[in-house]
Write a structure and sequence with these properties.
The protein is mainly alpha-helical. The chain has a domain of 109 residues. 57% of the residues lie in helices and 5% in strands. The protein is built from four helices and two strands, in the order E-E-H-H-H-H.
């Protein structure tokens, strides 16, 4: 009982052991030493429709939960890239001749699309997580349709702006 675990170390042929530090038991989940709730638990309670309050179903396989989270993060990166692209177009692109509002016609929809995708990604993540917990089929995502439709509309606007600015 009093012995601490050891780990072999040293060069080949030498035999000595290094004492490992004693392991401490983790604190109870959701509580700090003074009996108050942890900051992450308090933040989770503030989220709308939090998955932590979902009482239906069972905890899904962690692989599926992590895959759902990776999908959310991929949509979040896409949303961030759209916002940055919109800002870059509005702030860095030179003005179009004969179309003074051309930069704004292209950049602002990208910024708005990024904001919409960020919120929709969170909603989709929650819907998928609830379906995983309850063993239901995953809901169909509207995100690819939103992205495709908006990018197509922005491409049409971009073509119109370029054509009008090229005419002399």
């Amino acid at each position: 009982m009093g012995e601490r675990p050891t780990e072999p170390c040293g060069r080949a042929g030498e035999s000595f052991h290094l004492a490992l530090p004693a392991r401490r038991l983790p604190k109870a989940k959701g509580r700090t030493g003074n009996g108050s709730m942890s900051w992450s638990k308090r933040m989770a309670e503030l989220l709308p429709g939090s998955i932590t309050r979902d009482s239906g179903g069972t905890e899904p396989d962690p692989r599926f939960t992590f895959a759902n989270e990776r999908t959310f993060l991929a949509w979040s990166r896409t949303a961030l890239a759209l916002v940055v692209a919109g800002l870059g177009i509005v702030q860095l692109l030179p003005p179009f001749p004969r179309v003074p509002a051309g930069r704004h016609l292209l950049g602002i929809p990208l910024i708005v699309l990024g904001a919409v995708l960020a919120v929709a990604a969170y909603v989709e993540w929650g819907r998928s997580q609830r379906a995983l917990r309850r063993g239901e089929p995953l809901p169909h995502s509207i995100l690819p349709w939103i992205l495709a439709a908006t990018v197509t509309a922005i491409a049409v606007i971009a073509a119109a702006v370029v054509l009008v600015s090229a005419l002399r």
